[in-house]
Amino acid sequence: MEVEIKLRLPDAAAHRRLSSFLVPGLLRTDSPARPLAASAAAQRVRLYGTDDRDPSRAVLTHKRRPRIDAGVSRVEEVVEPLDPALALTCVDNPARLGAVDSPIVRLVSDEYDVSGDKAPFVCLGGFRNTRGGYELEEGEGQGLMLELDETPFDFGTNYELECETAEPEQAKEVLERLLTVAGGPYEYSRSNKFACFMAGKLLP
Question: Which of 38, 155, 172, 201 could pair with 43 as two cysteines, CB 3.0-4.6 Å apart?
């Protein structure tokens, strides 16, 4: 079970303000991209790097039963590494994913019956997400890993602060205080990026 705090930022100005505030804890910036979907659950190939055609690494992710309540997201998630060259092949030809020797593919085939010609994998499209990774270095939240996302869609740009944690209520209090100190407005996320992508509009 992946548990994350998701706080929505209203605009680019709030994103820039928080990014500047977090600069001392900057660990990395990356651009994962491109979801695949099958049946009722989200099946995603995520490419890491600045060049979609030459990713530094890739992962295959299966997510299901997402729930978001007051900014705390819970979703059943299975993740495994995927060879970047194979990942590109699957992005270009989603049906190729069905032939990959993978626990995730076997799980999806068994639970959702999406193997062979009966229900092949199809690509619903993709999106780019630029992510800044930060670590809180002092204070009550010391050691918390934060991810500040900017996700441009054709219909608008989504800005979000995320923090994966085993103690969501405590982490949420830390992030709320941090945003108050940073002077950045925010609201609790009630939907995820994939839901926005599928809806074709920015959701709260």
Answer: 38
